[in-house]
């Protein structure tokens, strides 16, 4: 009788143990939970590449890289991308052929699988530009024209449209900049490259819907961009300025920062804040 009771106790203990193990295995781990949650957000990385631009947009399992910073920040850029476990860039956009935007592009092209590559129809007689073209040829990648009216497929609940350039002939190379608007759910992000007031005026004249929650401030905060009319139409809650510490250009210019301050726009700067990461759940945008 005592032996039978002993076996009953052992059996009961085993049942409890099995139920505990099963319960644990059915509960999603925190890692899996994070993966599930991350599928329901858009992550925008304004990467600190010093005096230049590089932005990584991650949404619906897809990656879009806008610009690749200057030559001297290439290692920093690659390190950042590797930390995000980037294996493939579905889209890469070189907004315009200035060194501070395409310096690291040749290395990016060689290192990662690239889906489609976009750039405006503007060449440059520089070693940096030639290196980018050589890298593209080595991977048999063609350059798709970045111009107003082009849309990129970033998956469900997401619209990615190029709003500029709106012309094929500019005196200033900055105005060839690809201007991109991404809408994720109800949240909107505008990326302006180095587009200056002329390009901004053309965008306004086309009456595009450029209202956005977040504005990547044009030309590193230069006074040649961010016209009052443009800022009024965009009406952002958040602005991000990508620039280097103690740069030779005096960026950001006082006129620009004054206009942002006057409009009570929360402003982040990569020279002060380092890389800026914003997360959208489709309704609100928060800083990570």
From TrEMBL:
Pfam families (UniProt xref): Lactamase_B
Keyword NAD: no
Keyword Signal: yes
Cleaved signal peptide residues: 1-24
CDD domains, alphabetized: ComA-like_MBL-fold
Domain of life according to the entry: Bacteria
Limits of the Metallo-beta-lactamase domain: 51-245
Key words of the record: Signal
Protein name as annotated: ComEC/Rec2 family competence protein
Organism: Clostridium tanneri
């Amino acid at each position: 009788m005592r032996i039978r009771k002993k076996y009953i106790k052992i059996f009961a203990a085993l049942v409890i143990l099995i139920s505990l193990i099963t319960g644990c295995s059915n509960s999603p781990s925190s890692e899996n939970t994070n993966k599930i949650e991350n599928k329901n957000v858009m992550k925008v990385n304004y990467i600190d590449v010093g005096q230049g631009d590089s932005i990584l947009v991650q949404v619906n399992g897809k990656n879009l890289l806008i610009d690749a910073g200057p030559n001297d920040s290439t290692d920093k850029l690659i390190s950042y991308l590797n930390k995000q476990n980037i294996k493939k860039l579905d889209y890469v956009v070189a907004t315009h052929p200035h060194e501070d935007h395409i310096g690291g592009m040749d290395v990016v092209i060689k290192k990662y699988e690239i889906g489609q590559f976009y750039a405006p129809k503007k060449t440059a007689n520089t070693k940096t530009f030639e290196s980018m073209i050589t890298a593209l040829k080595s991977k048999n990648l063609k350059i798709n024209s970045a111009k107003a009216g082009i849309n990129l497929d970033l998956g469900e609940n997401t619209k990615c449209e190029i709003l500029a350039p709106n012309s094929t002939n500019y005196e200033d190379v900055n105005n060839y900049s690809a201007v991109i608007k991404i809408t994720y759910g109800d949240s909107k992000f505008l990326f302006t490259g180095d587009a200056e007031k002329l390009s901004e005026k053309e965008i306004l004249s086309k009456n595009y819907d450029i209202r956005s929650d977040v504005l990547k401030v044009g030309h590193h905060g230069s006074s040649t961009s961010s016209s009052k009319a443009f800022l009024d139409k965009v009406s952002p809650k958040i602005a991000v300025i990508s620039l280097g510490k103690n740069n030779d250009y005096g960026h950001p210019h006082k006129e620009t920062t004054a206009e942002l301050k006057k409009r009570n726009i929360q402003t982040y700067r990569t020279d002060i804040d380092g890389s800026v990461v914003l997360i959208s759940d489709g309704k609100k945008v928060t800083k990570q």
